[in-house]
Structure prediction request, 178 residues.
Amino acid sequence: MKAVEIIEYTAAHQPYFEKFNRQWIEELFVMEPVDEFVLTNPDKAILDGGGAILMASYEGVIAGTVALRKVDDAVYEFTKMAVDKNFRRKGLAEALSYASFEKARTLGAHTVILYSNTKNAAAIKLYEKLGFSHVEVEKGVYERANVKMIIDVRRMTEQEKEFRTSFNKQIEQETISE
Prediction:
């Protein structure tokens, strides 16, 4: 069994999607009405509009998630990225991020945007490592957003290529040792 697998969301994953996101939102912020709607109705909030949700499993246990909300044909919002607190520091956030870029490309995206808050410094550091750039935050999008970032996903970044190479080597080694 692969240590980390990225899989497509199914309705059976909704409780995980909600639980993982509630963990970080309630730890750092207050749940906004839009959060409640998205977490309890991901099909309506994300999928029905042309978006996607990916799940990460670690040694067979569902451990993380990320969503792509369609903004328009060329732009998707990277949203609701969460890894269960028991599975952090295992590369899941990075694996989910790069898988979401690949998914965005297959959906026709040129650009992926995200909104965050400076209270979530670890996430912002990861996003910068992934290649996101800071841009000005427009008013009225999300109450807590004071950071907006953007990345062009039409081509793999060097970081993404390096991650995929090391990730694939890890999977090959695990397969050989099984």
